[in-house]
Each structure stands twice: as C-alpha cells, then as structure tokens.
Write a structure and sequence with these properties.
By secondary structure, the chain is of the alpha/beta class. The protein is built from seven helices and 14 strands.
C-alpha cells in the first residue's frame, strides 16, 4: 500500500511539473486588490527543485490568494550566487521572500549582506529545508536570520513531528504529524528570537530536533521549517497547508483561526479555477 501511495505521489509530481507553469521574475502589479506577492528563490544541490517550485506555487494558490514568482538558478551546484541578490532593492514589489535554495559553498560575507539587507528593512521571509544550510560565510549572520543553527543532517527516514503548543500556522495539523519520508536536520542552536512550533526525534542523536519555528529578525517576521526534502512530503496537504499558513503569517496576513486575512481568502470561483496538487481531505458525510 505504501509503495502504491508513493507511486501515486510521484505521478502527481510529474503531472504538475509538466502541465503547471510558474511565473518568472517580473515586477508584480500594484493595487490594493492584488494577491499576496511571493518571490520564491530556489536552485542548487541535492533536491528536486523543478518539482518543488510547481507543487508549492500551485499548492499555495489553491489555499489563498497568493501569486508566486520564481527565480531559479544554479543548477545542482553548491556555490552559485543567485543574480537577483546583486540588484539594489531586489525584493521591491513583493510581500514575502520564500527561500528554498541550497548553496552551502557561497561563502562571501559581502554577498550575504546584500541578501540580509532587504530583510533588515522588514521584508518577511519563509525558509525551507536546505535554506538553513546556505551562506556559511564564517559568521552567524545567516543563522540569526534563520532562527536556528543547523550544521547538517543524519539518515533519511520517516519521522513524527510533534507540535508544541498552539499557533495559527499549525491549524489543521495533527498533534503528532507522521511525516512520510524525510531528512531530519540537526538543530544545534535555537536562537533566543525563535519560537519552536514542532520537533522530531533524531535517531542519530537520540534527541529532539526543532523542525518548525518562527523567528523575529529585528522588525522582520520569519517562518522556518527544515521539513521538505522529498516529494512524498512536499506533495502532501499537510505540508502545503503548513507553508501556506507560514507565508501568510510572515506577511501578517493570517488570522488567529489559521485562515487567510480579509482579501486573501479564495472565492468559490477562484477555488474552482485552480487545481490543487494535494487537496485537503474532505470529511466523510454522516450516514
């Protein structure tokens, strides 16, 4: 049965990669009625970023009025400096920057300053999986921004993410979320500005590791998760719901009940117009 579900998941990934285009970088339109504009930056080593960008963009668009613009560079390298970061005011016009890149060998402190400069202005951020392993420039500036310090990971296995307390970002997730297939990152340090929301047991360390959290980087909201290595996880409704709510929260657009703020909830017509790569399960009608 598990093998069947994995085959179905992989087939869905292939379908959405083939038939669901994602916008490239461009100046988003202005106007109070526009959707939440997300700049999604991706590329680099060790992950299927071609599939992830489609799953996440489509999954968020199926849950809220979120429009995602993708910048993908660097192939499968570990040392590519993404070109948009060299532009002045590189995040201008976007409401949130979603970091899902993997460039651990970009080690130039001056380049890192260009990245963080926009977030120091207050531009919200979402950080996913290998983003926590980027920009090891010899200081802690990137890790302060992330909210955790992660030096690496252990073996690959399914694990149970145990939620900590209540938070709108966690709405709809089970208290013990069975993550189907993953790569649990170590969390050597949780910075004092960060609030853990979920953790999982490392079989390598025999200790709990933070895997979902929020961080306050100066005046900037940051949502982070180290979950998201495999398509078996990123193509689930639990994961897509989590990153959607995390994105909305970072922008200050998530209500206390875990729903999009006014103006960002989908109309019935909008729901009908989008194809959700991982629909939320519907309750079984009572007999």
């Amino acid at each position: 049965m598990l093998r069947f579900l994995r085959l179905v998941s992989c087939a869905l990934v292939a379908f959405f990669v083939a038939f669901a285009p994602v916008a490239s970088a461009a100046e988003p339109p202005a106007g109070k009625d526009r959707p939440l504009e997300v700049l999604y930056i991706t590329g680099g080593c060790c992950h299927d970023y071609d599939a992830q960008k489609v799953l996440i963009a489509k999954g968020m668009a199926a849950r809220a009025r979120i429009r995602t613009t993708v910048v993908q560079e660097g192939g499968t390298s570990t040392n590519h400096p993404i070109s948009i970061y060299d532009k002045p005011d590189w995040s201008k016009g976007y409401d949130v920057v979603f970091h899902n890149e993997c460039f651990s060998d970009v080690k130039d402190p001056a380049f890192l300053k260009k990245i963080l400069a926009e977030h120091e202005k207050g531009v919200p951020a979402v950080l996913m999986h290998c983003a926590m392993h980027c920009y090891r420039v010899g200081n802690d500036e990137w890790f302060k921004f992330c909210g955790i310090t992660s030096p690496g990971h252990g073996a690959h296995y399914a694990y149970t993410c145990k939620l900590k307390g209540k938070h709108p970002i966690l709405t709809g997730l089970p208290l013990e979320w069975e993550v189907p297939k993953e790569e649990l990152y170590y969390s050597d340090k949780v910075w004092e500005t960060a609030t853990p929301l979920g953790e999982a047991m490392s079989t390598d360390r025999n200790a709990m590791q933070t895997c979902i959290w929020t961080n306050q980087f100066g005046k900037t909201r940051v949502f982070g998760t180290t979950i998201g290595h495999y398509a078996e996880t990123t193509a689930t409704p639990e994961f897509l719901g989590l990153v959607t709510r995390g994105t909305l929260w970072a922008a200050g657009k998530l209500d206390e009940d875990g729903t999009p703020a006014d103006g960002l909830e989908l109309t019935e017509a909008e729901k009908a117009a989008v194809v959700d790569p991982a629909p939320e399960p519907q309750p079984t009608p009572a007999n």
